[in-house]
Structure formats: structure tokens, C-alpha cells
Amino acid sequence: MTILSILATILILLGLFFFFAGTVGILRLPDFYTRLHAAGKCDSLAAMLMICGIAIYNLQPFSFAALLISLKLFLVAAFVFIASPTATHAITEAALVLGVKPWKRTEKKRP
Amino acid sequence: MKTKVATFVIMLIFWVVLSGMFDAFHMTLGVICCMLVAHFSHDLLFYGDAKSTWGRGLLGVITYLPWLFYQIILANLEVAYVVLHPRMLDKIDPHVIRFKTKLKRPISKVTFAQSITLTPGTITVSIHDDKFSVYALTRRASDALPGEMEERVARALESGK
After folding, report:
1. A110 three-class SS
2. What values do phi and psi take at B99, rounded to 5?
3. Half-sphere exposure of residue A80, counting CA atoms within 13 Å on the CB side?
4. Chain B partners of A88 at a C-beta cutoff of 8 Å?
5. What is the spatial distance between Cα A58 and Cα A49, in angstroms, rounded to a whole number?
6. Strands B131-136 and B122-128
7. Fewer beta carbons within 10 Å, N or C terminal of chain A?
8. pLDDT, tens digit (0-9, with 9 covering 90-100), for B62-74
9. d(CA A61, nearest CA chain B) in Å
């Protein structure tokens, strides 16, 4: 177990935790918009962490081909970071234009 | 001409990373493709006022990114806490806030909107001129806006004028 393997494992486990939180959020939150919060964004950080973990793990044993593959993985992470908020924004605006009603806290009867 | 050369260099770096083959045939193909792309669409990557200031803009973005990552991690932890909390429905309070931004350049507005959407708990719904609509999950998430993030985006990208 080298130090790079340990670092990669930690990153992947952290990514799994955020994916878990995002999934729980999709299941528990009350309406479309709040679910988008969980779906669109916990995922961007989680995907970033996991891809970084995989890229670091892939670097050993070190070779030029492995470095190229890791660079490609980082490119994937960068594009996820640009595309994910754009998609979230587009879906939210489309839902608002179509008139999906947001959940309001006041609708809930409080004892 | 300068933008053509810059586009060509960026495209060639992309080609080398994505292809990973260095024999004469593949490199020649890459150079020809990159020259064609640079010739036809050099004004897409560096358009308008970005031509003269892109070097400084890049520097600003590089200094801005670490802070953004720190914020994303903080905000992710907070959303994870809210979502995993047993009495979640008492914690969340979805609402829309509207505010005006003082950012002028389109690129800084887009960066600001993407940063808002990336930090969990807030989604940018729309931008009309300088009016932002932001959908927030909790009161705490919306209290921080526009605030420090706008300042930092302004410092990173607006100063290049």
C-alpha cells in the first residue's frame, strides 16, 4: 500500500459519501426544485473527488501512457464542472417557465 | 493573427493529450486539423474585448478557483448535513431571491452564475441584464449572496479592463 493508493482511496471514499448524500437528498427532499439541488451539485463535487482519486490511482506504476490517461480523466472532471451547473440552470428555468409549483414551507401544518 | 496562433496551440495541446500517438502520420493529421479549426473559428475562443485581456483573465481565474473549491466543499458539507438531518423539513426553506449585480462583462456574469449554481444550496434561475434570480434551499445559503463571491469574481475578471 503506497501513499498514492491511500490518497486515492480517501478521495474515492469522500466522493462516495457525497454521492450518498446526494442520493438521499433526491429521495427525501419534497419537490422538483429542491431535488435538483441534491442531484445537480453534490454530484459535481463527488464526481470531481472520485475522478481525481481514480487518476491518482492510475498513475502508479508511473509511465507516460498512464500520465496521458490521467490527464484525460482530469479533462473529464473539468468538463463535468462546466456542464453540470449549466444543465442544472437550464432544467430549473425550464421548470419555472412550464409552471411547476415550488414547495413552500408555509404549506406545512405546524403544531 | 495572434488569436489564431493561440487557438492553434491550445487545440494542439488537446490533440496530443487526447490522441497519445506521436508517429508522423498522427501528428501531421493533428497539425492539419488544428490549423483548419484555428482558421475557421479563432474568433470563438477569444471574442470581443477578451482579445487584449485574456492573459490577465486567466491569471484571475487561477487565483479565483482555489477559493471556489473551498466554498464548494463547505457548501456541500452543509447540504449533506441538511439532507441527512432527521427533521429535514424544518431545516429547509426554499425561496427565490433577486438582486442586482455590478458586474459588467458577460464572462464575469457567467462565471458568477456558474459559481452560484456550483455552490450547493443555490441555483441561478435567470440573468436579465444585471438582475439575477437565485433559487436557494436554505436561508443561510441565500444570506451569503451576492457578497464576497461577487467581490472575488469582480477582482478576478473585471480588473482586466
Report:
1. coil
2. -150, 165
3. 19
4. 117, 123
5. 14
6. antiparallel
7. C
8. 888 888 888 888 8
9. 18
